[in-house]
Amino acid sequence: MPINYLKQIQLGKFNAGGFRISPSKALDAIIEGFYVFSREPKDNSQLIFNDGFPVLVFLQNCDDIVEVTGYTAPYKVKAAWASAGSIKNVYVNYNNTTDEIFIVRFHPGAFYKLFGLAAPYFRNLPIAPFEAIARDNQFDLKRFFKLDSITDKIDLVETYVQKSFKEVAAPEVLAKSLKYIHSNRGNVSVRNVSDDTGVNYKWLERTFTKNIGLLPKEYIQLQRFINAYQELLGTADVDLMRIAITNGYYDANHFLKDFKGYTGKTPSAYLKLQKDF
User: Fold this and answer.
1) Consecutive H or E run containing 38
2) Alpha-carbon dihedral of residues 34, 35, 36, 42, nearest 10 degrees?
3) Reduced 3-state DSSP string for 64-84
């Protein structure tokens, strides 16, 4: 999803144009939350990032289009997209009609079970048009866009999930692993996770790949980066070495390399771009 929205979600602090709606109790193990964000008209291009929680991102109108750039040759997505996996240096460019974004954020693993996808589905296409996925799984996208209120849209999504989700319990050790990684903000090693859960690396690798589509190391890297990103954008006194070390990087160069890999820009160039907006 757009990283500026993800930053608000992770911090639990929303600006005037964003808010969260909790899913019904029966679905809170599948859907992490529903989110609505108002897009600034001048914010025509947004960096996309994923922290391991797959999302559906709905544009305001069924005919709205974004152009996806950076990962491969530019391509267009109409109405809605799904994204997951490790997304690096990918941006979406909006048309001028989308003022509001509606996001459904799923718990790791639940999205793939719901839509019958293999977990590595997004490895080669981190932002996929939702239209084909919806059609193959009888999600009524046309009806969704005919609804005017967010409440009605949430009701449609929840009804669909209740009817379609075939519960397949994820291993408890996986949930424990994710909790450990999140509580430590990604500042851990795979060995730390293995020691905490009492399982070996091969088991972790198979389980993460099957349920999340990422290796344990990749999942940890996502958590580490998003926390370092939040700290970078949340401080007026930018000290790259301090940010790097406190977030589990070996040094500032390691953080710089990661930052450029995910954003396509150096921290200073990216911060300048944010200030210009």
Assistant:
1) strand 31-38
2) -150
3) CEEEEECCCCCEEEECEEEEC
Long-range contact pairs involving 235-238 (C-beta distance under 8 Å, separation at least 24)? 238/267, 238/271
Phi, psi of 194, deg, nearest 5: -60, -45
- The count of other CB atoms within 10 Å of the CB of residue 231 is 17
pLDDT at position 95, please? 80
Beta bridge partners of 78: 65
**What pairs with residue 103 in β-bridges?**
35, 57
Please list, in sequence order, all residues whose beta carbon lies within 8 angstroms of the beta carbon of residue 194, skipping any fewer than 6 positions away: 200, 201, 204
Terminal Cα-to-Cα distance of the chain (whole angstroms): 19
The Cα–Cα gap between 13 and 19 comes to 9
Closest CA to 213 of 73, 138, 113: 113
Judge whether 51 and 222 are in contact, CB under 8 Å. Answer: yes
Q: Is the pLDDT of residue 277 over 60?
A: no
User: Could you report the per-residue pLDDT of 200-240, keeping only the tens digit for each?
Assistant: 999 999 999 988 989 999 999 999 999 999 999 888 778 89
Tell me the C-alpha distance between 277 and 272, whole Å: 9
Amino acid 276: pLDDT:
63
Tell me the per-residue pLDDT of 155-200, one tens digit each, with 9 for 90 and over: 999 999 999 987 766 788 898 999 999 999 999 999 999 999 999 9
Helices (DSSP H) in 121-215: which residue ranges?
130-136, 141-146, 150-164, 172-183, 190-197, 201-211
Predicted TM-score of the model (pTM): 0.93
Strand order across the 55-58 sheet: 18-21, 31-38, 100-106, 55-58, 80-83, 127-129
Q: How far is CA 71 from the centre of its chain?
A: 16
